[in-house]
Amino acid sequence: MKANVKACDEEYYTHVEGIGSIPRDIYKYVTSDPMGDLPRFSIHIVIQHTLFFISFLVLVSTGLPIYFSDVFWSPYVIALYGGIDIARIIHKTGAVIMILASMYHLITVVGGTMLKILKKEFDLKRTQIPRLKDLYDLIDDIKYFLGREPYRPKMEKFMYKQKFHYFAVMYGSFVLTAAGLALLFPDMAAKLLPQTIGKIFSPVLIGAESFAAFFQDLARLMHADEAILALIVLAFWHWINVHFVPGRFPIQWTFLTGRIMREHQIEEHFLEYLNNLKEIPEEREYMRNLLSDNNLGVPSPESGKSILADVPDIH
Amino acid sequence: MEISKKCIVLYVLWLGINTLFFNDSLAVAADKENCLMCHKHRFNARIDENGRKRNYHVNENLYSHSVHRNISCRDCHTYITKIPHDPVTLKVNCANQCHIRPPFAQEKFSHRKIVDLYKNSVHGGKPEDSEILQKALPNCKFCHLNPLYSKISEKRVSYKETLARCNNCHPQSGVEMAYKHITHRLRKKTSRSSREIVQLCGKCHGDKNLMQKLNVSKKAMDAVESYNRSVHGKLVQLGSQKAANCINCHASSALHDINKADNPGSTISKDKIMNTCRQCHKNTDEMFVDIAVHPDITHAGNPIIKMISLSLGLGMYGSVLALVGLLLLETVGRRKDGARLVLKKGTTWYGKQKSVSGKKK
Questions:
Q1: Domain count, chain A
Q2: Which domain holds residue A191?
Q3: Chain B residues within an 8 Å CB radius of A78
């Protein structure tokens, strides 16, 4: 019993040199600025998100009425854009913006990583690269949501949800770009693809009479399906996540300010918050004052037990 | 003297007003035989033996601005020999010679060449055709109206600018008409919009009952439907004039030579299809022409695409349901733990008393 208490105690309190022991649920006691307190995204990421945001809306609002051309609202949306021929030009312009933003992102990510490796500051845990820990985090988080665990897992800068979404967007924009190019230049695709990818697969495997026809059919399918999937995921998941989840209403300003709220950072990205404490002296000062003012974070021998006894009450 | 001058001025003014506002009555029609004596009346109509409404009114103003404005009535309606005429049983034959002699031509004008071309096309019909098929085949008038001249907007040079040079020598009205006629034919295959053409062809080819009676192939059966699913069809449905409509691919510039794919003269025959595609897709090669212009949405002939389509659909619904489920679970869990929807006084958390701070007392 005693050993068990001790172990839980260590998990609940995180001792940071020069600050004190930080309880896991300290996020309930900090004050946050809705515009964000702690750095999360660089200006590049903010610009890339804005470009993606705008181009995605433009692409969806011109692409959907073309795909669902027989639905009653399509002609009105197309008329808003000044006719189908103009809408097509706008769609292609949006696509170019999205492709440029993707390239910009790849350059900043690869370049930034190189720079960090050169400066010996690179930390795999602070990147989007998935680890096995993310799976455990997901399981622990579900346990917490169901009330089986007292606290959320301690997660890095990017949690399982964000990593999943990041790679979904990467895959989606790659597929959409490739399929869209095949639709825009069908004659080029018919020349190039059968000579490259088509050679790898045998025609028997593909089951089509012609490679060109197969790839064009595939592009038609993938472009539409992938776009609708992206729209549904963004509309029903991402937008709810940043607008309607408790604590985020009416909007999470990170996408413009590049900064995250303190309580959000501690709750969902605790390990990144520890990095913030190391890097930002003001934050160290804030946390030290908070702990000492409220008499928090110093587990006294007599209160240690009562805290743990109280844990189930939280849920 | 003074009075007669005033009279002349007034008369000229009267003529001017007439030409401006009462154009109808002054239009010079090709009505040498005075058919309009009866046919000018608006309610010159009846319901015939089969119950169809027939309208015999000829709007002189409209007719005199149409393509056939200089053709007298009996050039086409040759069977009329006396006034009042007998009930009409015959139909107009567009291969008739009319009394117009085109410039530089020795013979009278006739549509015979086009009619012959059309008779040889798939729509022309053959003596061995079934009765239903012969009934279903369209005649000239099924597609052709007697179109009015309309303005054409040009991108590079406005037609007025070009016409200004013609008008240096030629009388204005005739040249303008001829020019519009020629440019219209040069730039567009028909005076109908692409959407109207698809509707026109779809009148018969989209009629499944009729097509079933005619025993057409599976591909021809779904032709209209599958075209409307293709990107050409979708763009045309939304009003594009650039995307290919039916006759862009199925007819040459002679327009009436629509034929089945196995006919070597057809624009979609094996030898000619590449040239047909090249009208828009410049880099067409023998691979490109395999791409389905009338795509099959069921992917019946392509199990791999069918599988991908199915798994994409499953993946879509699966991931969306899983993500939204997790989101709901997360919201419920965090709400229970004391998370508020909105940030108030710098925090979204209430229920602190349950936790550590309560213990400091």
A1: 2
A2: 159-247
A3: 238-239
